[in-house]
Amino acid sequence: MWFTLLRKIALLPWRALKAVGRGVRACFRALRSPAGRLAVQCAVTAVVVAAGLGAGYYLVPSAGPAWSFGVEPEPEPEEPPLVLAPEDAPDAGLPAPTEPQSDQTGLPGGGEETDSPADAAGGLLAWAQSLDHLGIPERALLSYGRAEILSARQNPDCNLSWTTLAGIGQTETNHGTTGGNRITADGTTLTEIIGPEHNEMGPMQFLEETWEVWQADGNADGVADPHNIDDATTAAANYLCTGGRDLTDPADWYDAVHSYNPVDSYVQKVYDRADDYGRKSAPQ
Question: The CATH number of the domain where 242 resides is what?
Answer without folding.
Answer: 1.10.530
